[in-house]
UniProtKB/TrEMBL annotation:
Organismal lineage: Bacteria, Bacillati, Actinomycetota, Actinomycetes, Micrococcales
Name of the molecule in the record: Methylenetetrahydrofolate reductase
Swiss-Prot/TrEMBL keywords: FAD, Flavoprotein, Oxidoreductase
Domain of life where this protein originates: Bacteria
Pathway entry: One-carbon metabolism; tetrahydrofolate interconversion
Cited InterPro entries: FAD-linked_oxidoreductase-like (IPR029041), Mehydrof_redctse-like (IPR003171)
């Protein structure tokens, strides 16, 4: 992969955070405004926490992308209220996962149901991301996730891949996605430079039940991080060079899962840019 292409991916990389107390302050301390920050939605922290955090970040000059988890939305009326709120905040990009709420809060059993309603409302949303799973989902069968991506392709503007630590699996999966005729740009999900002890602290902050789900869903992260030299995000990207360089694969950017380790993740990103000869690793590419 060319140095200039990798620089662009790192300059435009967006961060995913959980809306825990103090996260806005940490972002504003370590990340320059203008960057894209996505805010997760979880039953342990509430959809209100997601929306409030996104509003604060948008007001500070970041491009905030709230996760509107379909199974946490009570129905069309609440969705309309959410869209009105986002419009007033100047937020025009969202990410729509199904979410883990069991049972669903209202009339949306999955992301597709919400996306259909969303389209009929003509909201002030210009960019919509949906989930993609290079590896098996811990709960949903593979054939269901494949069909779901196909069903959602006409309602979204981009797909965002879940964590995977095997470049070979990512490459094979993405080739299959393109062969099926799904042409949406892919925002490639990767884990940032995180520490095990800090991951456990994040899990402890999001409620007992939610923490259990968090740990189960991120078992691979813990396993890889526990091995000496088991995971290095730069090596991961380097091994994916053929895919990242291939226009047919349609890699539109990086989505870095920070697990709220914003300082460490940003320090890693800036170091990589400096190694690539970037004269100003803090600048933002629009």
């Amino acid at each position: 992969m060319s140095a200039s292409a990798l620089r662009t991916l790192l300059k435009t990389a967006r961060y995913e955070v959980l809306p825990t107390a103090g996260i806005v302050d940490r972002i504003s301390e370590h990340v320059v405004p203008g960057r894209t920050i996505t805010v997760t939605a979880s039953t342990g922290l509430s959809l209100e926490a997601t929306l409030s955090t996104a509003e604060q970040l948008q007001a500070l000059g970041y491009t905030a992308v709230p996760h509107i988890a379909a199974r946490m939305v009570q129905g069309r009326t609440e969705l309309e209220e959410i869209l009105d709120r986002l419009g007033h905040a100047g937020i025009d990009t969202i990410f729509v996962p199904a979410g883990d709420a069991t049972p669903p809060a209202g009339g949306y059993a999955g992301a597709l149901d919400l996306l259909v309603d969303l389209t009929s409302m003509a909201p002030p949303i210009t960019q919509i991301g949906v989930s993609a799973y290079p590896e098996s989902h811990p709960i949903i069968p593979d054939d269901v996730t494949v069909q779901a991506m196909w069903d959602k392709r006409d309602y979204a503007t981009q797909i965002v891949s879940n964590l995977c630590f095997d470049p070979g699996i990512v490459s094979t999966w993405l080739a299959r996605v393109r062969a099926r005729g799904i042409e949406l740009p892919l925002i490639l999900g990767i884990a940032g430079k995180v520490e095990l002890a800090k991951l456990a602290k994040v899990a402890a902050k999001i409620g007992v039940g939610e923490s259990t789900r968090f740990l189960r869903k991120n078992t691979a992260t813990f396993t890889r991080m526990a091995k000496p030299g088991g995971y290095n995000p730069r090596k991961f990207l380097d091994r994916l060079s053929p895919v990242l360089d291939d226009p047919y694969m349609g890699i539109g950017g990086l989505h870095i899962y920070t697990f709220n380790q914003v300082k460490d993740t940003e320090a890693w990103r800036r170091k990589q840019l400096e190694l690539l000869g970037d004269p100003d690793p803090t600048s933002v590419v629009s």
